[in-house]
Amino acid sequence: MSKKIAVVVGSLRKGSFSKQIAKNVMKLFPSDYEPEFVEIGNLPLYNEDIDTPENVPAEYTAFRDQIKEAAGVLFVTPEYNRSIPGGLKNAIDVGSRPYGQSAWDKKPAAVISVSPGAISGFGANHALRQSLVFLNMPTLQQPEAYIGNVTNILDEDGNVAEGTVGFLQSIVDAYVELLNRY
Ligand code: FNR
Q1: Is the Cβ atom of 102 under 6 angstroms away from ligand 1?
Q2: Which residues pair with 8 in a beta bridge?
Q3: Phi-psi domain of 121 (left: phi exceeds 0; alpha: psi -120 through 50; beta: other)
Q4: What is the 3-state secondary structure (H, E, C) of 99-161?
Q5: Which residues make beta-bridge pairs with 7?
Q6: Is the CA virtual torsion 30, 31, 34, 37 positive or negative?
Q7: Looking at the 3D structure of the chain, how many domains does it have?
Q8: Cβ-based neighbours of 37, under 8 Å, separated by 6 or more
Q9: Domain interval for residue 42
Q10: How large is the ipTM?
Q11: Residues in CB range of 61: below 8 A, 6 or more apart
């Protein structure tokens, strides 16, 4: 049976570079893995008042179920103001509740930060890792994946240059090794 990988992209915009990078990475998984995008843009802002058995939004439940069904979670995110975009933090919060039933618990994760700038989303990458520690997600340490100057490596069809494919493959290979340990 193929193992699902939930791919969570921190950007909501249609032309997102992060999403384009994610698409390139998804193609590099072995055939027994099934990476699929999990939508975060439809999640109402997390509010404990509505997160009750009577009122829980259908979007929260669907999102939590998708994460729970996955063997692991691949995060591909831009950096907003040296941290992660609010929509991604909201998704993390939604997935972490109800208390004691976190969808993220023990899911092996990998983080790829993406930026048109030279600092490569380092701040977002590590801000995200801070939450993943608390959420008990064993997270790929090496190779680290900071994709900077992203507009230089994507062609007009959204494909990465040959040299970058090898780098992305090394991330996927190490992540699959991590997944196999759990
Ligand atoms: C940005 N951007 C940005 N870039 C970066 O490298 N470090 C940062 O701290 C920020 N801060 C930031 C804040 C906000 C509110 C926006 C909208 C943008 C620029 C960002 O990297 C750029 O817009 C990317 O194209 C966003 O990623 P996607 O949507 O292409 O995946």
Answers
A1: no
A2: 75
A3: left
A4: CCCCCCCCCCEEEEEECCCCCCCHHHHHHHHHHHHHCCCCECCCCCEEECCHHHHECCCCCEC
A5: 37, 74
A6: positive
A7: 1
A8: 7, 9, 19, 22
A9: 3-180
A10: 0.99
A11: none
The CATH code of the domain that includes 126 is 3.40.50.360
Question: Distance, CA 43 to ligand 1 centroid (Å)?
Answer: 21
Shortest-distance Cα residue to atom 5 of ligand 1: 79
Atom of ligand 1 nearest to the CA of 17: 30
Q: Is 27 in the pocket of ligand 1 (CB under 6 A)?
A: no
Q: What is the mean pLDDT of each run of 10 residues along the chain (182 residues)?
A: 95 98 98 98 98 97 98 98 98 98 98 97 98 98 98 96 94 98 93
pLDDT at 108: 98
Q: How far is the CA of 80 from the centre of ligand 1 (A)?
A: 5
User: What was the pLDDT predicted at 107?
Assistant: 98
Tell me if 120 CB under 6 Å of ligand 1. Answer: no
pTM of the model: 0.98
Give the per-residue pLDDT at 72: 98
Residue nearest to atom 13 of ligand 1 (CA): 80
Give the pLDDT score at 162: 87
pLDDT recorded at residue 93: 98
